[in-house]
# Entry
Amino acid sequence: MTSQAARPEPVNEPVRTDLGSLSVTVWRPAVPHCTVLLAGEIDMITVPDLRACVLAELQARPLTLVLDFRDVTFFGSAGLAFLIEIWDITKEQNTELYLTSVTRGVARLLDIVGLAGMFRSDTRPGAATP
Amino acid sequence: VPPPPDQDEQSTRRGSAGHEAIRDAPASSLRFVLGADFSASSVARDRVEQWLRAHRWPTAQIDELVLAVSEAVSNSVEHGYGVSRDMIDHVGAVFVQSAIIIEPDGFRRAEFTIRDTGSWRDRADGGRRGHGLLIMRSCTDELIIDGSPTGTTVVLRSRPVPPQLRVTR
# Structure
């Protein structure tokens, strides 16, 4: 196993990366835990960089990965493909994936494709009723 | 009947001071052409959202229609023209038109037509495009896809919304 070399150090302060219309803030308070705060549009333009960022975090095999959707303004099929891939990887490496503050739009999309029950999640206040 | 002009052009052009047109009624139709690149769906989302807001469309339906149009434009770019993320000079174009249809009972529907001249390819991407189609179907009342080797036309028709109240003083 060479994962030791790729293991990122804990960062107590959230680190924000700007990916155009999406900003991604990674918080790694302890190595086994990682929170990724998403703000902006998750679409075909931003997904490749977002994917690279999250895959890099998963290299460290954290116990939990929390994706925080509270400030996501758009989420379409590209985002869906990303989420499904992340679900697969986390399942395989026993990282617990949790979606928090899921917006109405994201919840609606998961519902449309019949994947709403696949993710452990909570909704953003006010987002529960479609 | 000649196609309607792009009456919406003035009101949606951003940052051009002095063009803040104040009109009694928003444009009944919208027409624009997008270059086939990865920014196309984002531009389409902005324009469709502004247009529907101008028509005081119900907010929940705006979200659904914006999503449906975005998926249709993404499909044209990615699957119709086979454009990848780094291509910025593809010659293909995506044509977007919309209109509001008033039904006999006064209810309104928004209809969007998204057209490309790419080549229709069947699901060859492991279901991603299938999700796009499912989303378009779920967010509209009617989805019509006319695919041929020389182009694809997608028509999205919204669910009916109540007549707009005209407040007169």
Observations:
- Residues 1-5 of chain A have pLDDT under 50 and may be disordered.
- The beta strands of chain A are 11-19, 22-30, 33-42, 64-75, 96-102, 120-123.
- Chain A is about 30% helix and 40% strand.
- Residues 77-92 of chain A form the longest helix (16 residues).
